[in-house]
Write a structure and sequence with these properties.
binds heme C
Length: 129
């Protein structure tokens, strides 16, 4: 907890260090495909469990920014074939492959974006935001 005092001169305590998000093992994906995946992530209700942008914090649901599927085949196994359904990950039977591909592109690009944000150097004093 922080207490503030008007005119106080104490320094702000250092913020907890955030662990950098590891780089995904898959390369950056096509952005148009990822944009379609963005809508599908909402539409299929993935975000209800995995959080906005897949960045669920805490609980049993993995943060997909930090644990993106290794490749498209793995996403298909988990999402369409229900490989992790015993652990609470819904099976989306009958999801078209084109939707799985768009979701994969979205999840991978969000993981790259989180990686980039977490590894960006702090802004220099006086630089434009
Ligand atoms: C009802 C909640 C729920 C919904 C909805 C859901 N998930 Fe999950 N998902 C989970 C849980 C819980 C796990 C972890 C399972 C485990 O620990 O083995 C998981 C795991 C995953 C994984 C594996 C991550 C890893 O590397 O271990 C992927 C990929 C994934 N979900 C993608 C999706 C996508 C894409 C959607 C939407 C089409 C979706 N999920 C919808 C709960 C959900």
């Amino acid at each position: 907890m922080l207490a503030f005092k008007i005119g106080g001169k104490s320094a702000y305590p250092p913020l907890a260090k955030v662990e950098p998000v590891p780089a995904p093992s898959s390369p950056r994906q096509n952005t148009a495909l990822a944009a379609k995946g963005d809508l599908l992530f909402e539409g299929y209700g993935c975000s209800a469990c995995h959080g906005a942008r897949g960045a669920a914090a805490g609980g049993k649901v993995p943060n997909l920014n930090r644990m993106p599927p290794a490749d498209l085949a793995m996403l298909k196994q988990v999402v369409q074939q229900g490989a992790l359904s015993a652990n609470g990950m819904l099976q989306f039977k009958g999801m078209p492959d084109s939707d799985a591909e768009a979701l994969f592109a979205y999840v991978i690009n969000e993981a790259w974006a989180a990686h980039d944000r977490s590894t960006r150097k702090p802004k220099q004093e006086g630089s434009k935001p």
